[in-house]
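ARCHIVE CARD
SHELF: 3
SLOT: left
DATA:
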Amino acid sequence: MSNKIITIGREFGSGGREFGRKLAELLGFAYYDREIISEIVKRTSLSEQYVQNIAEHKPVISFPIHTGRTFLTWSVMPDYGQSVHSEQHNIIREAASKSNCVIVGRGADYILRDENPFRIFIYSSMESKLQRCKLNQSRDYDKGQELSDKEMVKRIEQINKSRADYYEFYTGQKWGDKSNYDICINTSFITPEKIAEAVKLLVC
């Protein structure tokens, strides 16, 4: 029997990471998110900051190459970029082969498409994303370093555009399009943790 695989795409600030972590906990599944970056760092001996940047952004080139389909090498790829994406692809497939798992982001739904994962997309209103980001910011930043609401909205928009560009570049599909997922969930009016409890019943 094949492993159960749940992939989660998410807007920045929508609580997708919290949802994924809680769902994995409730189901007793392995959870992969930033752990993927840490494993790439081990395998490539590159800095975590460099890997993070490469792994979440499409290459800066003037024509589309859907490496999610072919993983071919091309001469204009930034240094080490191909190895980072190849390792990320390998790690995601290895994780899915080991055990039941929840994988957040990184185009895992497309990479594992032949394994028939349960594909979830998490989104929310801008007001909800802003409030969640402000709450997280108050925990992560020293006093005086917080972004204004206007600056935070701009950051949210930039990160989500980057995620959309990355996903569309490597998959040829539209990020957040309901036709690419089994379920899309709005976290604007309910906590990600509560939603995880409901989704557990759906996927069991």
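SLOT: right
DATA:
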Amino acid sequence: MFPDFNRWSLPLLILVLQGLVFVVLLLSRYYRKRNVSDLLLGLILLLTCYSQTCYTVGFMGWYNEFRTTKINYFLINIALGLAPLIYLYVKSVTTSNFKFNRSHWWHFGLAFAVIAYRFGIYTYDALQPGFHETQNGILKIELDEAYVQTIMGYIETPFMLLYLAFTFQLFYSYRRKIKQYFSNTYKLELNWILSFLILFSVLFVYGTIQDIIGSRFMDLGYEKRWWLNLLTAIVTLYIGIKGYFTDTTKLNKLDFSFSPKTIAIPEDDLNTPSKSYAPEDLEHIKNLMDVESAYLDPELNLSDLAKMAKMTRGQVSEIINSGFGKNFNDFVNEYRVEAFKAMLKEDKHQQLSLLGIAQECGFNSKATFNRVFKKLTSFSPTEYLKSQVN
């Protein structure tokens, strides 16, 4: 009897309905504010909820009650649409002033082709005699299930794997880029996006292993596949909550459109200054840090330092990378760490907490301070203080 609310269907139904709530919230916010990231995340959740809905109605007895249902024609694997959506979502969050343009539609070419194909075979089968008396028509059985689904199984896995690889590469490229631009990166590291990618990767690996086992070793029925659906529904809800309440528009007003000549410096060349700038330019940058203490500004970024130096961002970035052998982030934070050490020698920890001193030196978060200090000194701030006292 449909609907059958049981231990299989009820958890999925509750989670899917909650996921759909966040689909509505994200798409509504996109309509109001026109943030492309909201639209893309809303579509990601919509696809995963659609996939889970198909399984949920199955556990609720739909297929038993409606023996001639044609839902199999529309049980389309979402990977072909989900993979490019994930990639474009991360791109929209990590790219300043991202705009969805015509070229981005090509990412969905394969997904649109599959949708058109499914509607095509449905239309053909629907015109055949006796179609309303059966669940699947002749093309669904003799073409789709016999050949096409097997072929798609070989396409979807590498397709998803390729897009996940590109997306991780995009994300870590962004992480490296902000170190060339910002001195305090904690609020811009977008750890939520990393969690988002890891969760989808786990689902992908789980689903791939399940498909291999189900096709080659043993038959996995609906109940054995339920766990993946439950995990997917939980992940969908988590992503909906985090994605809606996390500000992913931090870069919308920033401009990364500069091209420093040197982004990474080979170790052998760290002490070899580039000849494309004058020695006095390097000394000028050093003076801004040593004398004017520009590093004390917690929001200091490459643009700010370039304005102070009356140079372009590209020039300042090249001087820091080539002349000092560091990226902008390490260059500024080394000054902050040295200032912190100097304040400890002056016994400032008697009046302020370690975090308070760090903030006086230009750090704006405990996480950034602890990580940077450990990286540059091999000690935690507390360990360093104890070593100085002893």
